[in-house]
Amino acid sequence: MVLDYLRSLYEAPCNWVEGGEPGGKIRWLRAAPGAKIFPGEFAFGSSIWESERGDDDPPVGETRADHVWRRTITSPNPGQHIDGDPAWMLSGVPAAHRNDPPSPCAGQFADLALSATCDELVGLLALVELSLNATATVSTTIDIRADLAFEADYVMPPANHVFADLVLDATAEALAAIAARADLALDATAEALAAIAARADLALDATAPPPATFAAVAELALDATADVLVAIPAIADLALDCTMEVSLVFSGAKVDNFPVFFALGSTTGNIGFTNVDYDNGPYWNLGSDSISLTVPFSGIYAVGFQSNVFGFPAGTLAFSHETELFLNGSATDLRLMQIFPNSPTAGEVFNAPATELLLTAGDQLRLVYTCVTIGAGAISHSYNFWIQFQGAP
Amino acid sequence: MPATGVKFTMVFRDDIAAITESHIYLSGSSPAGALAAAQDLMTARMALMGEGIEAVGGRLSQLGKPRVVALLPDSFLSGLAVTPVLYTIPSPSPAIVANQKMVNSPDAPNSAFQLNWTGANGHNGHIFMAGVPDAVISSGSEPTNIFVVPGYQALVDAYTTLLRTAGWGTVCRKNTLDTLPEFTVEAVVTDPTSLNASLIVTGNPAPIAAGKFVQVYRFTRTNVAYLSLNGRWQVYSVTAGPAVGQYTITLRGSQGVPLDVITALGFVQQWDQISVAYGALAPGRAASRKRGNRVLRPRARQSRPRRISL
Q1: What is the extent of the structural domain holding B201?
Q2: Span A253-391: which CATH code?
Q3: Taking the alpha carbons of A9, A10, A11, A12 in that order, is the dihedral positive or negative?
């Protein structure tokens, strides 16, 4: 039933038992639509309106200390009647009847319910704290790993990718740990909720049902779980950010076809690599074929191609040239086309327009060229092929 | 001693805000005894409201101890939940929906005015009358002529008459005329032990004693940006000295008040309240629009700080 009018809802200590007995609490809920107003006088009004009262709290009813604002919850009770002796709403529950089953007084069963669930709530909050602390520990671990990677980057730039791999492994471990912790937290919360429900059953057996109180407790528990669930994705985001930052340490890779490549007539072949590229780590296949690149991280890569003309001897009438990317052995139909002018000058540099590819770690990337010369002269030129990591998809 | 009587708070609302107004029923010693008078007052107050105002409820609480509260019954409130008389004829909209504010209506309850009152022993103040229809008030008028609709003036008169004759009043802080002595502060020093502010007065400042509340007033400071000593404080201790005949009143929780910026010393008086009957009541000036808090709507949930170390 309607017991007062409030702007905001809160929880406060309350003496429910006649003569005063500390330890009880009252939480204000919004009355259900259509709830009736409590008829008659009562002692359990809100203290919010009582600015003219004396400095001391009354022996029965709400005290003004330790108000905690709570979010608005509508009472599941229809609020059409009050169970038990209405006189107790003014005098408080007689101490002799405090634990009588069934105890129909609204004040009494609310007191009992809150007392019964107090332990569970404390336990639940402790579990939430524990899970958050555990998550924070994992995030600290990620920070340390990231610091290690960056420090290594400073010391050994050519080996960035090795440490990026290390950090990726570490992050994967951390994420797995977070997931495990989250499972633990959810299990723990479920156990706490089950315990609360069990207590609620006990209380329901012993007293008139206090659905409003237990609904409030359930809301609290769900709130706490939601907090944990929010915290976990936040940590996961952090880990991903960390990974991305570390990945960016991989500045790119370049291969050169060197020394000078000579083309005469129609020629097709793979562009071979040497070990002079500036990222000479394990991403380049330096085996016998030396023609493919292993993509280090999944993500978006800029791909570019450049050709340097060294000589265009007399007798060469025209020269066309194109290259095509092969991904994992198959043509991608991605052509980096270059048409040399009829009479290119030695020393000219031609750049193909850079493009972007979404690649998966482990993909094999290969560049195949086809060049055609018309005339008797042999074009001499070199290739420069590069990729650069741009970011996560 | 706390004030006596029964505090009656009326709660109204329109579509976005709420209006509360409280008075003290001096003749009542219990909420039940003030029920009839409260219903009469709320009926008269509802008649002053603009279009779309809903009477949510009323609460009566006994001042002092023990706490006793009663609410106006459903049967009474259901009779009040009607749209008040419209002052704009014809109506701005042919389809008036009960309890819905007509946003563009001249009768929308966006206006307010002050109702000035005076009482015994120099007490005075004003009641903020919110929810007034826009159509009845002239915001640019002199205080003696703020209502442009004679019928509304009559309703205001009926309300003020009821307040004055039916035993209504308010709660004020006791002053000297209520036989509560005030003491002139002769010096302010820092208590060497608690670092609180200590007021030095001449003569025993009884009834001021440790644990009691006092009102400090008429102090000035070099800049209002500094914390003020004016206000309500709880007494930490009352001791004799430092000179013969002098007493030192130390104020609890006053460590943060800078004493070196005080430019004029004022008075200290025990804090106590008294119920004062309304003597004269008269409309004052029109006041700002849309007073009142968002109320009876859920407040947004405040998130708990998260314990994450990043």
Answers
A1: 181-271
A2: 2.60.120.40
A3: negative
